[in-house]
Design brief:
single chain; 262 residues; alpha+beta; four-stranded antiparallel β-sheet; 7 helices; 10 strands; 22% strand; DNA-binding
Length: 262
DNA sequence: AGTACCACCTGACGGC
DNA sequence: TGCCGTCAGGTGGTAC
């Protein structure tokens, strides 16, 4: 379930493994993962180049090169990266394999094919044309308040809407609402002004904690709801039974005691 | 503008 | 054992 913290961890992984090596070959084993490129044009665009920098916006990752195009990665629900050395076998469901001339390889793996791989010559333009809102982790308090205030739907649907804020998915939206003590069905417009500040603070705190734990459930802080996303599991704050309900046709987990109905 | 629902996609799981 | 429906959830399209 790659959301912002997951993608940030992938970005750091890419940064730590795959910069400054010449791309020698790009193998696409399932072209349904490609968007607006063919296996041939992807290879042609990247061949002979080196990745030089990385950037994340919401759930998208960019890898800039020493040439014109940047690689664009989205991980859907099941995507991840795996850097291979020596005889390492690419994992199952490797969809794109970048081979560097030194022999190392980077596998883009995506079991359910809900992610995408492409290239762009204009990262900002790519973000704009995908109508992504400000990055949920980088956004400052004023911008956060301005983009969320005056919205009409539920708090949860606002948080998960990528055109409002980029990066928050189903699971982290639940976490942020839990930490903010806001019921997922609360109408955005019913929130007092102070609650937007709280939401911003908790968004930063939760995303930071997710990144710091390396998105490893076992390493998440004990105040996190995320490891307890199950009906009747005790709330980490008050011990009450966690409940679930459908909000905009997604399952929302929440604590009925900490997050009272609006 | 917001919501509801479907489709994409694969694999795990429970029921029979 | 195996078949089937359901669910997981990010995104995009469409209808309301």
């Amino acid at each position: 379930m790659p959301e912002l913290p997951d993608v940030e961890v992938f970005r750091r992984y890419f940064e730590a493994t795959s910069l400054n090596q010449e791309v020698g070959k790009v193998d696409v084993s399932d072209q349904r993962i490609l968007q607006d490129v063919t296996p041939g044009s992807l290879g042609k665009a990247l061949n002979g180049l080196q990745f030089r920098s990385t950037r994340r916006h919401g759930k998208f990752m960019f890898a800039g090169t020493n040439g014109e195009p940047s690689l664009v990665l989205h991980f859907g629900m099941t995507g991840y990266l795996s850097y291979l050395e020596g005889d390492d076998e690419p994992p199952n469901h490797t969809r794109v394999l970048f081979s560097f001339t030194g022999g190392q390889r980077l596998a883009y793996v995506c079991q359910r094919l809900l992610g995408l791989v492409t290239v762009t010559r204009d990262e900002d333009g790519f973000i704009e044309s995908n109508e992504l809102g400000p990055d949920a982790f980088a956004v400052d308090r004023e911008t956060f308040r301005n983009t969320l205030s005056g919205r009409r739907g539920t708090a949860k649907s606002a948080l998960t809407n990528q055109t409002v804020l980029a990066g928050i998915g189903n699971i982290y939206a639940d976490e942020i609402l839990f930490q903010s003590r806001i019921h997922p069905k609360t109408q955005m417009g019913d929130l007092p002004d102070q609650a937007l500040t709280t939401l911003h603070e908790q968004t930063r705190r939760v995303l930071q904690a997710g990144i710091d734990s390396d998105v490893d459930v076992a390493r998440m802080p004990d105040w996190f709801l995320l490891p307890h996303r199950r009906e009747e599991e005790p709330c980490p704050r008050c011990g009450a039974g966690i409940q679930s309900l459908k909000v905009s046709s997604r399952t929302a987990y929440y604590c009925p005691s900490c997050q009272p109905e609006p």
